């Protein structure tokens, strides 16, 4: 008599029946791991950007509907890309396991599915901006390796199952050991090779040494932080955002590593004189400092996707003047090394009163990699998605009715001036405060005209003017503060700003799409 897991062959031995579906799933996972490892290995040798996971992840970033992108930013913040990569990895693991089961049950079906996955990864790689002539080779070789391994493991597994079912002890043992031996070696090799190749890829692609060694020319003009620029209120955001705390929102799954010695900026399109500049050409035009607040269009009312920095750079208008834009052009399509594009009104880049710059330094040091090293755009008064292109490498002078940028077909406006906004930094929502004197403080910005005053209302009472910090300039945010005699209970704090042209921050609530959120922040505070 036998159990579900054993078949008796004689008085002293049994043949354990394998759980075929379970081991088939393992075969699929190991084969997919081998595919990725081989692809990463050859990416190191011939095409460092040809990583299947990163390429597929980038395609997903491109095709995900706008509401899902906004949800990801809201839920995960600056970790949205890590969450995406984890999601891609889990999805690939499930698909690989299914392919293994199908290959075990229906010969060649799983191999075809794995091959289709490899083809899709190859397509994702070769269609990315900057893909080299050999970018197809790593995913193709990886796919071949993965398919061959899956066929081999599935064949051994079928033999093992068949031998166990026929009570062939020796044959079952041989095929069982062979299956686990090949699986174990392949899995261990995939981990070592894949992780090692990714580390080597990152290390060899890194230009950290070049950034560390970079010595920029001394700025001709500097930004002076005036006395009174900071109100020194605990819990209030600093007037200058440290680089490490500056928000990051972009479409790059991995931070591009661009060597300044090979970086080039080209300007073409509707110009009389197309030009190309090296990094040295650009910085030798003369550097100046600028205090500018940047805001992401994904910033909710009261949100933190905004920061202020001292940028060092070159006016974009001076560079465009060299190319001589044609009279009927009205838009500049800027492009990053990873293919991202932004549409910026030509007038915003050529206005003598608006300091749009090619920034090369941030708060006194070369741009951090995640903020655009070696060169990015900074344009006061426009949301980042239409102006602040990181790792910029090309400007095409064109027209809004002839070209569109990355976010335009995804439901965002082609032009997006920053909306005047204010927020409460302290007291924080959900953090009770003690009765007595409590400072209410926050930030406000109104590019390009500047903040005139900030007003606060407690429990929908009269508006009272806040004390403002001394502004650095009209392109930077300001701090504000109101002393509040807090009484026990629950209270609502509402804030609004007024700019130097007399415009009052709109109360009308608007979502972040298509051109930025709006409304007054209303905060509930508990006083004990």
Can you tell me about this structure?
The chain has 528 residues and is α+β, with helices and mostly antiparallel strands. The protein has 3 domains: 6-205, no CATH class; 243-410, Sulfite Oxidase, Chain A, domain 2 (Alpha-Beta Complex); 421-527, Immunoglobulin-like. Helix content is 35%, strand content 22%. It contains 11 helices and 20 strands. The strands form 5 sheets. The protein has a 5-stranded mixed β-sheet with strand order 4-3-12-7-8. Helix 6 packs antiparallel against helix 7. It is globular. It starts with 5 loop residues before the first strand and ends with a strand. Mean pLDDT is 88; it is low at 1-14.
Key descriptive features of the protein:
Immunoglobulin-like; 20 strands; single chain; alpha+beta; five-stranded mixed β-sheet; Sulfite Oxidase, Chain A, domain 2; 528 residues
Q: How many H/I helical runs?
A: 11
- Judged by helices, strands and strand pairing, the structural class is alpha+beta
Which percent range fits the helix content? 25-40%
Question: How much of the polypeptide forms β-strand, as a percent range?
Answer: 15-25%
Number of strands: 20
Described by strand count, sense and barrel closure, the largest sheet is:
5 strands, mixed
Query: Would you identify the regions where 5 or more consecutive residues have pLDDT less than 50?
Result: 1-14
Radius of gyration (CA) equals 29 Å
How would you describe the oligomerization state of the chains in this entry?
A: single chain
The overall pLDDT, averaged over residues, is 88
Q: How many distinct folded domains?
A: 3
Order of neighbouring strands in the sheet with most strands: 4-3-12-7-8
Query: End-to-end span in angstroms?
Result: 75 Å
């Amino acid at each position: 008599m036998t159990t579900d897991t054993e078949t008796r062959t004689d008085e002293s031995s049994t043949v354990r029946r394998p759980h075929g579906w379970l081991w088939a799933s393992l075969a699929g996972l190991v084969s997919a791991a081998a595919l990725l490892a081989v692809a990463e290995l050859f990416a190191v040798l011939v095409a460092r950007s040809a990583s299947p996971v990163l390429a597929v992840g980038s395609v997903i970033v491109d095709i995900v509907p706008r509401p899902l992108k906004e949800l990801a930013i809201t839920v995960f913040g600056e970790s949205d890309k890590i969450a995406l990569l984890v999601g891609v990895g889990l999805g690939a693991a499930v698909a690989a396991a299914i392919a293994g089961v199908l290959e075990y049950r229906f010969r060649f079906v799983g191999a075809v599915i794995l091959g289709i996955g490899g083809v899709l990864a190859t397509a994702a790689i070769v269609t990315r901006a900057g893909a080299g002539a050999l970018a197809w080779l790593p995913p193709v070789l990886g796919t071949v390796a993965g398919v061959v391994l899956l066929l081999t493991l599935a064949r051994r597994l079928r033999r093992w199952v068949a031998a166990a079912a026929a009570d062939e002890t020796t044959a079952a043992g041989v095929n069982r050991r062979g299956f686990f031996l090949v699986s174990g070696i392949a899995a261990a090799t995939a981990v070592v090779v894949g992780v090692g190749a990714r580390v080597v890829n990152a290390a060899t692609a890194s230009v950290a040494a070049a950034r560390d060694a970079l010595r920029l020319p001394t700025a001709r003009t500097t930004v002076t932080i005036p006395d009174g620029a900071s109100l020194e209120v605990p819990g209030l955001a600093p007037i200058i955002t440290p680089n490490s705390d500056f928000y990051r929102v972009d479409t790059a799954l991995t931070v591009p590593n661009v060597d300044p010695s090979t970086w080039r900026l080209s300007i073409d399109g509707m110009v009389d004189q197309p030009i190309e500049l090296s990094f040295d050409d650009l910085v030798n035009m003369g550097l100046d400092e600028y205090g500018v607040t940047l805001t992401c269009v994904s910033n909710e009312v009261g949100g933190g996707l905004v920061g202020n920095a001292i940028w060092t750079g070159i006016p974009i208008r001076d560079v465009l003047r060299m190319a001589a834009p044609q009279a009927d052009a009205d838009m500049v399509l800027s492009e990053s090394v990873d293919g991202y594009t932004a549409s910026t009104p030509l007038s915003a880049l050529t206005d003598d009163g608006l300091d749009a710059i090619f920034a090369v330094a941030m708060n006194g040091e070369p741009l951090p990699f995640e903020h655009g090293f070696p060169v990015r755009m900074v344009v006061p008064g426009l949301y980042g998605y239409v102006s602040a292109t990181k790792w910029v490498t090309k400007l095409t002078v064109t027209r809004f009715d002839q070209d569109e940028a990355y976010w335009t077909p995804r439901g965002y406006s082609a032009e997006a001036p920053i909306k005047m906004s204010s927020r409460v930094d302290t007291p924080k929502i959900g953090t009770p405060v003690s009765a007595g004197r409590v400072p209410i403080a926050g930030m406000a910005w109104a590019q390009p005209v500047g903040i005139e005053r900030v007003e606060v209302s407690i429990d929908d009472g009269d508006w009272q003017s806040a004390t403002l910090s001394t502004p650095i300039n009209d392109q930077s945010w300001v701090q504000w503060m109101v002393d509040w005699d807090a009484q026990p209970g629950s209270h609502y704090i509402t804030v609004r700003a007024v700019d130097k042209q007399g415009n009052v921050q709109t109360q009308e609530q608007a979502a972040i799409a298509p051109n930025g959120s709006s409304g007054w922040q209303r905060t509930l505070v508990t006083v004990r």
